[in-house]
User: Which sequence fits this backbone?
């Protein structure tokens, strides 16, 4: 049973560039959430996708956008990168309709903005 | 913004000792979950406690929840060096319908052999 996978593992970009991160959910899951974790902090919710639409969004600017594909995989796009966007980006999957909001996390993508 | 606040921020103990971490939160919750993170990698789900539960066990883990005080504790008994990690509490305020999780800043646990 494949867990949540993310690619790439690490990424280095410069300010102003754009980046795309990818996530494949756990087998059988249909909902994908993205979190940003700055160094020494807990994860912060960016947004959540279900049925190819953004269901919820945290307090992040429009530079952060996403997409969900028919196979439930998802992408996170960040435009006009800032130094402060350097963080670990975590993807989590879950199943809508489950009794509890237990989310399964991927290993993350470490983004460094220079 | 972060709802949960873990206490202490860092904890160092010897192998075999018990480790207790606390979490406080601000708003009503549907459930509270504890996660472990090794060296800045992905989060591993440890245990979930519903708002109508007061205590839950899973192996060497014991979680309590006091909704009147808006607090929870995680106890790891007979700790091992492999328990060295950061531990986060996360609250689900979404009514069980896939709301986002709100994480605290975590407790960094170091277990010395």
Assistant:
């Amino acid at each position: 049973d494949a867990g949540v996978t993310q690619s790439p593992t690490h990424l280095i970009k410069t300010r102003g560039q754009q980046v795309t991160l990818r996530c494949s959910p756990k087998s059988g899951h249909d909902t994908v959430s993205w979190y940003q974790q700055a160094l020494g902090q807990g994860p912060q919710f960016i947004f959540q996708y279900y049925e190819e639409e953004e269901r919820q969004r945290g307090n992040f600017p429009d530079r952060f956008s996403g997409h969900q594909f028919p196979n439930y995989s998802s992408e996170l796009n960040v435009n006009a990168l800032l130094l402060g966007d350097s963080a670990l980006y975590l993807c989590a999957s879950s199943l809508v309709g489950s009794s509890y909001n237990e989310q399964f996390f991927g290993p993350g993508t470490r983004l460094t903005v220079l | 913004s972060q709802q949960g606040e873990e206490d202490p921020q860092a904890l160092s103990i010897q192998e075999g000792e018990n480790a207790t971490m606390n979490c406080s939160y601000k708003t009503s919750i549907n459930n509270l979950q504890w996660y472990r993170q090794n060296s800045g990698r992905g989060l591993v789900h440890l245990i979930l406690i519903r708002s109508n539960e007061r205590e839950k066990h899973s192996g060497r883990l014991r979680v309590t929840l006091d909704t009147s005080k808006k607090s929870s504790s995680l106890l790891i008994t007979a700790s091992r060096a492999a328990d060295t990690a950061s531990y986060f509490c996360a609250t689900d305020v979404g009514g069980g319908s896939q709301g986002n999780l709100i994480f605290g800043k975590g407790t960094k646990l170091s277990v010395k052999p």
Notes: The CA atoms of residues 65 and 72 of chain B lie 4 Å apart. Chain B has a mean pLDDT of 90. Chain B touches chain A at residues 1-2, 4, 30-31, 33, 35, 40-45, 48, 50, 88, 90, 92, 94, 96-106 (CB under 8 Å).
